[in-house]
Amino acid sequence: GENVEQHPSTLSVQEGDSAVIKCTYSDSASNYFPWYKQELGKRPQLIIDIRSNVGEKKDQRIAVTLNKTAKHFSLHITETQPEDSAVYFCAASRGNKLVFGAGTILRVKS
Amino acid sequence: DAMVIQNPRYQVTQFGKPVTLSCSQTLNHNVMYWYQQKSSQAPKLLFHYYDKDFNNEADTPDNFQSRRPNTSFCFLDIRSPGLGDAAMYLCATSRDPGGENEQYFGPGTRLTVT
């Protein structure tokens, strides 16, 4: 089955700096890669996703890149703000199941 | 305009006492999922329904059951909760089972087992 690895497990950045979180997946047939943000005690919320026919997608300060050959994808957050502090999960999907990475705790220091 | 609703938000049960968690959705989505999320871990899929078809994950304990009486509602039954079942239980929905469909999560039910 699919296995998703996520790094780093924790990331501290200064406000205004960029943050990058990386994930690798094992199943080359996976074709959908969402990123979720989860604040303490709240539901995971989709912040951006990318499909296998696209190499990069951007939404304001957030971008995701996908390298299907290498089977890895990354989340980039620019101009980080304190409200970006949360746990971020990557996931990979083939069919109807999401397999999540272990999560990255992002702390943005002001 | 809540889309995926879970009740209760907090549930305390005793060791071995059956408990039922509820999920409802206003999205008219075909697929409903139940995840277990323990502290500092990723959500772990327990099972899902595609319409009336039940799909259990291979490693989901028999202690966990689910019912979907209609499109809008789905229940998670824990027959004999153990201390290790204390967790956040998340319900999610998606329009179709295809891999490119976004999953919408409910706010979760935090289960405490005493």
How would you characterize this protein structure?
The complex is a heterodimer of chains A (110) and B (114). Chain A contains no helices and eleven strands. In chain A, the strands form two sheets. In chain A, strands 2, 4, 5, 9, 10 and 11 form a six-stranded mixed β-sheet that branches. A five-stranded antiparallel β-sheet of chain A has the order 1-3-8-7-6, with no helix packed on it. In chain B, strands 2, 4, 5, 6, 9, 10 and 11 form a seven-stranded mixed β-sheet that branches. In chain B, strand 7 and strand 8 form a beta hairpin. Chain B is globular, with a radius of gyration of 13 Å. Chain B is mainly beta and 114 residues long.
Put the structure in a nutshell.
With 110 residues, chain A is mainly beta. Helix content of chain A is 0%, strand content 59%.
Write the layout of secondary structure elements.
The complex is a heterodimer of chains A (about 110) and B (about 110).
Chain A: E1 4-7, E2 10-14, E3 19-25, E4 32-38, E5 45-51, E6 56-59, E7 62-67, E8 72-77, E9 86-94, E10 97-100, E11 104-109
Parallel strand pairs in A: 2-11
Antiparallel strand pairs in A: 1-3, 3-8, 4-5, 4-9, 6-7, 7-8, 9-10, 9-11
Chain B: E1 4-7, E2 10-13, E3 19-25, E4 31-37, E5 44-50, E6 53-56, E7 64-67, E8 73-78, E9 87-94, E10 104-105, E11 109-113
Parallel strand pairs in B: 2-11
Antiparallel strand pairs in B: 1-3, 3-8, 4-5, 4-9, 5-6, 7-8, 9-10, 9-11
Distance between the termini of chain A: 41 Å
Which strand-content bin applies to the residues of chain A?
over 45%
The quaternary structure here is heterodimer
Percent in helix of chain A: under 10%
Low-confidence stretches of chain A: none
- Treating each run of at least 4 consecutive H or I residues as one helix, how many helices of chain A? 0
SS elements, strand count of chain B: 11
Largest sheet of chain B: 7 strands, mixed
Rg for CA atoms of chain B:
13 Å
The count of β-strands of chain A is: 11
Helix content of chain B: under 10%
**Order of H and E elements of chain A:** EEEEEEEEEEE
Structural class determined from secondary elements of chain A: mainly beta
